[in-house]
Amino acid sequence: MVQELTSNPLFGLILAIGMYLLAHALFQRYPYPVLNPLIVSTIFIILFLLSTGISYDDFYVGGSVLNMLIGPATVALGIPLYHTFHLLKKHYKSILIGIFLGTIVCTFLTGILGVVFHLNEKMIASLMPKSITSAIAIEISGKMGGIPSLTLVFVIVSGIMGAMMAPAIFKWFAITDDIAQGIALGSAAHAVGTSKAIELGAAQGAMAGLAIGVTGAITVFVAPFMFNVIQSFFL
Length: 235
Fold this sequence. Notes:
It is a multi-pass membrane protein. It comes from Carnobacterium antarcticum. The chain crosses the membrane at residues 6-27, 34-54, 60-82, 94-117, 152-173, 210-234. It is found in: Membrane. By secondary structure, the protein is mainly alpha-helical. It has a domain at 79-234. It has helices spanning 2-6, 9-29, 37-52, 56-63, 70-76, 78-83, 85-116, 121-127, 134-143, 148-172, 178-200, 202-234. Helix 7 (85-116) packs antiparallel against helix 8, helix 7 packs across helix 11 and helix 9 packs parallel to helix 12.
């Protein structure tokens, strides 16, 4: 009976959505950064699987359905961008230059930090695409000789940490411009950061959605090049 239930794709899907809704309700009541719904729901699911003895493979049969929605959800970010297109048209030079330079610096410094902490080439290759959406990051990591599953972990952690720390960073450095906030969240914390940007406002959400696409496109070319540079001069 239990086996039939857990092998049904609806089981993993309902569990994932249910745990997230529970975690989100908790965050609404106690809005502390450490209670980020993604972190809490992940912990809830892990504890549930461990306590019931249900395997991750059984859960993933249904949970993987949510992966299929990453693409459509990313495309849907174009809706707020459409509504704030006037901002993009007015500031497109500073927006694109900021994303381009930020992507280069972030990718290179990530690789250098890997060298400083004596990580091997596979680890560095897995870490360098951490700031872009998972679908693109996994492909880049694999082509550079990294470990895609490890890259996925880095992407998730990067997104959660970025969304958690962004409000404090904006406050400390007096970053009040809507466009700057959105670009920062989208380019550094991908989809998770974009969800936070949408909470801050429509303009922030639109710019974050734009930053996800542009950052991903730039990283496809920049990450392998930077990795080769680091291999040649630092490894």
